[in-house]
Amino acid sequence: MTGPNWQPPLCLCLDFIAHQLEVRQNSYLAQFGITSSQAKVLLFLLVHEQQEIFQKDLETVFSMRSSTITSIMGYLEKGGFVVRTPCSQDGRAKRIAITEKGKALRGIIDAMLLENEQQFCKALTPEESVMLKALLKKAATTCFPHPHSHNAFHGHNHPKACQKEGTICSNN
Asked: Under a CB-based contact definition with an 8 Å cutoff, are residues 119 and 111 in contact?
C-alpha cells in the first residue's frame, strides 16, 4: 500500500530503531575505542567468561561470516581487549580470553545499554515496556528459531557436549 495513509511494515520500524541505536552506541563507544558490533561480542564474552569460547562459536551465535568475526576480533585484540590463542587440539581454532582492559568495559557497556533502553522506552509505561520486551522475545524465538539467534546473552553454563558440535549454545 502506498499513499498518504501508508504505514511502514514492522520490520522497517525495527530496522530503523536498530540503526538509530547502533549510531547512538557507536558515537558513545568511540571514546573507548570500540564499535557497537565489537561491544556486542565483548559483552557476550564477558557474560560467558567462565567458558571456553572459540571464534567459531561467535560465528554461530551471531550468525556472522568467519571474515566478519575475524575482523571484529582483530580490532578487539589490537585494542588490548581480548587475546586469541590457538587450541592445543586444533591449532586452527582460536580460543578467546578477555583481558583486564576488556573486563573494565563491562560496566560501561551495561550502563550504555541501560541508558539506551530507558531512552527507547521513555514514551512507554512500565507495563508497556515489560510487554514490549516479552513480545520481542516471543517474536525472536518464534520467527527465528535458530537455537543461537536469541540465546546469546542468557548466561547459563553451556555443556561441553555443545562444544563438540562447534557451538556453545544448546537447544534446551
From this structure: no
